[in-house]
């Protein structure tokens, strides 16, 4: 099956519902036979995601910069833990190691990763599918703003269309899998 990279929050202060969503995502990836590629952290949604994947028998690949390893937030239980020299090289390696991308709720780091993958796709540097899960309207304000960018021609409609949006993990994985076959 595919190596699916998931972007999500690593905050330690999140509501339980976000941790549950991450654990559900990891478990469903594993049940479907996919490998999880993540930011290699063991905290917040990122930790719950990897734990969820492993609890369902999935393989996990973590990609983390040395600076975060030094802060003792690395997912040492990963089947494969790749350590980079910077956040920028982390993103590049995550893109290289993945067949598709899924974005869960998150903050600046999550958005940075999403926009890096999306920008490189609009430049035709890869053709890997991307899905954003808009649980409970989490991303609605951002999506409205992006649609306004497209309306004003700052973002080409074809570029906007590269990012699929769903509301559930099941829908998101169905969309990714339909583009991978």
Estimate what percentage of residues fall within beta strands. Answer: 15-25%
Spatially, the strands of the biggest sheet line up as 4-3-2-1-5-6-7
Please give the count of helices: 8
Helix content: 40-55%
Topology, number of strands: 7
Instruction: Spell the H/E element sequence.
Output: EHEHEHEHEHEHHEH
The backbone outline, from C-alpha atoms, is globular
Whole-angstrom Rg:
15 Å
First-last Cα distance: 10 Å
Runs in which pLDDT lies below 50 for 5 or more consecutive residues are: none
- Biggest sheet descriptor: 7 strands, parallel
Mean of residue pLDDT? 96
Overall structural class, as computed from helix and strand content, comes to: alpha/beta
Notes on the structure:
The chain is of the alpha/beta class and 181 residues long. Helix content is 48%, strand content 18%. Helix 5 links the parallel strand 5 and strand 6. The model has no long low-confidence stretch (mean pLDDT 96).
């Amino acid at each position: 099956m595919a190596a699916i990279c998931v972007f999500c929050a690593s905050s330690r202060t999140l509501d339980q519902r976000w941790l549950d969503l991450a654990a559900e995502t990891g478990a469903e990836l594993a049940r479907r036979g996919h490998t999880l590629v993540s930011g290699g952290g063991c905290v917040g949604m990122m930790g719950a995601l990897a734990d969820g994947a492993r609890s369902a028998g999935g393989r996990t690949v973590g990609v983390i910069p040395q600076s975060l390893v030094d802060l003792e937030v690395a997912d040492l239980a990963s089947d494969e833990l790749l350590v980079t020299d910077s956040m920028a090289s982390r993103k590049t390696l995550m893109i290289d190691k993945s067949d598709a991308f899924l974005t869960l709720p998150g903050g600046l780091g999550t958005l940075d990763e999403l926009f890096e993958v999306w920008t490189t796709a609009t430049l035709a540097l890869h053709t890997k599918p991307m899905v954003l899960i808009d649980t409970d309207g989490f991303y609605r304000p951002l999506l409205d703003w992006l649609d306004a960018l497209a309306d004003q021609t700052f973002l080409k409609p074809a570029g906007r269309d590269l990012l699929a949006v769903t509301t559930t993990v099941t829908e998101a994985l169905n969309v990714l899998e339909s583009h991978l076959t």
